[in-house]
Amino acid sequence: MNPADPLRVGIVCDLLEEHWPSMDLVADQLVRVLPSVAGDRITPVRIRPAMPRWPRVLARASGLRPAVNANRYLDRHRRYPAWLRRHRPPCDAYHVIDHTYAHLVHALPAKRTIVTCHDVDAFRCLFDPEGEPRSAAFRRMAERILDGLRRAAVVTCDSDATRDALVAHGLRRDGLVVVPLGVHPAFTPGDAASPAESPPMLLHVGSTIPRKRIDVLLDVVAGLRAADPAIRLVRVGGPFTAEQTVQVRTLGLAEAITVMPALGQAELADLYRRAALVLLPSDREGFGLPVVEAMACGTPVVASDLPVLREVGGSAATYAPAGDVDAWVKMVQTLLAERAAHPDRWTARRAAAVRQAAAFTWERCAAGMADLYRTVAHG
Prior knowledge:
The protein is 46% helix and 14% strand. The chain has helices spanning 21-38, 53-62, 65-87, 124-127, 136-151, 160-168, 214-227, 242-250, 265-274, 289-296, 307-313, 325-341, 343-357, 362-377; strands at residues 7-12, 42-47, 93-96, 113-117, 154-157, 176-178, 201-205, 232-236, 257-260, 277-280, 301-304, 318-320.
């Protein structure tokens, strides 16, 4: 094809039935922003089949988790690839938004397909079988996903840390390109409509999977409340697990925590602005989107001292050793004391956060992707 010809790019999305807000966000923002950065030279085409409803309904009605997981597997690994082989729209390039769907490369023209890898969790059972024990069936599924990743023309990574992890596990560096994510335009500094709350509200945004270290988060909140019982926590991302619920009761935190489901961007931005601090105690991350979202709203962040979170938060965020509850309690207390006693320092801290977040825009992300779409489309 002529390099000057307009391109059609298939944005291969996660199944809507899976309810992955972060992956839906990436797809939505690329579809929204690509026309503004590429004009009529690139037309994004959203690709996402609707899965048959009745198998999902029957699986859930059974009340058996294995039945739900089996149907999820069939949707992802059988029905979705079969639909792509029969019905995928003709495009000059394809972009699989979520690396856990990299097996779809087998049903796409691999030399014209890009996959974005957000973290290496999906493959840890292959790289670290003792630290991440999984069944033989799960490992076979992971191997097929990883094989799809290796077959893709280009793999983009959200961060240098994710790229380096893939290289350490055998992927060729020259096929990996770092394209950081952006911040939704709803995330802007606060105004009089959403003042920071007092007594201080701490905020955590994310899922309850093990690497998010909700156990550490709860221990930190308990330690803080021992000195200041007015402190409370809001957690966005759905209910605690059974084990985490027991920990909440054991620590006496039931009345101090508000749990909310995944929120729309405007609602989440309002919460960020009202929070005194956002806490991210994860022991692994691929990017750490809540870090830049919070900073874009002018809210300081305390994050685990991980290379990827330093990459994203820079000098504007504050860091504590992952898993060290005492260090986290002392760090948060220090920052809350600064907020109360030194408003000028706190204002400067908020301004630094906004400046750091300004480096992460969806326009910059889409422009980087547009260059790659042209590269793979022209071979």
